[in-house]
Amino acid sequence: MKASSFRKLKAALLCSLVVAFGYTVSVAESAQPAAKSAAPAKKEAPAKIDPNDPSSLIYLDTAGKPAGVGGNAAAPASQAFKVGMGWHPQALAGTGLPKDKYGLVDWAKLVRENIIKPKASLDPEEEEMPPLKMDILIPAKGDYVNDVIYPHEMHTYWLKCEVCHPQIFVPAKGSNDMTMVGIVQGQWCGRCHNKIAFPLTDCNRCHSSPKKAAAK
Q1: Is residue 151 part of a domain?
Q2: Residue-range definition of the domain harbouring residue 196
Q3: For every one of its 216 residues, what pLDDT tens digit does the chain have, with 9 covering 90 and above?
Q4: Is 0.70 surpassed by the pTM of this model?
Q5: Residue 188 lies in a domain
Q6: CA end-to-end span of the chain, whole Å?
Q7: What CATH number should be reported for the domain holding residue 157?
Q8: Cα 161 from Cα 159, distance rounded (Å)
Q9: Is there a domain that residue 166 lies in?
């Protein structure tokens, strides 16, 4: 065999060995079981809030003291604010508060049955104003729906007069051309109802005065 032919054969054998070795290594690596990915860390369950615990964060100010009992009124109750920004259904569920037919907390019933008695103001120097005991009959525009009895007492229990007057309601008879369409769109009563007050679908809670009663 010529030397040149021998060198060619040797080179061919060497190339074959390199290819075979590389393939073997590749197969061996692919046969290795995939490393198990680290199990995701379990999320810690949020601590339950006990509304009966006076030391709960929902009642504390930035200094860790019960909020609403004095101090700097301008300072934010940071801990209460941060906790309050979340939704805490367990805080309400654990209290056995009365519910309406929609399963929502009936805040009016809470007041009437003296279940709660919130502070009138966070300012200990502010004088508490009693609720205004005055009902207003608002005739419904339709013939087949009861008229509305608007109770100032319940609204002024929660709100100051300037919350509604004069920006939302002009305090003069006939000056508020209210419509249900406008209320549904967030005007007049719709500023609160359907948002933080009971829904507009609970018609009879407002339309509670029969038409014949107004005609007498």
Answers
A1: yes
A2: 135-215
A3: 555 565 666 656 565 554 454 544 454 455 555 555 566 666 665 566 666 676 776 667 667 777 665 555 565 555 655 666 666 666 666 667 888 888 888 999 989 998 888 888 888 888 889 999 999 999 999 889 999 999 999 999 999 999 999 999 999 999 999 999 999 999 999 999 998 899 999 999 999 999 875 455
A4: no
A5: yes
A6: 131
A7: 3.90.10.10
A8: 7
A9: yes
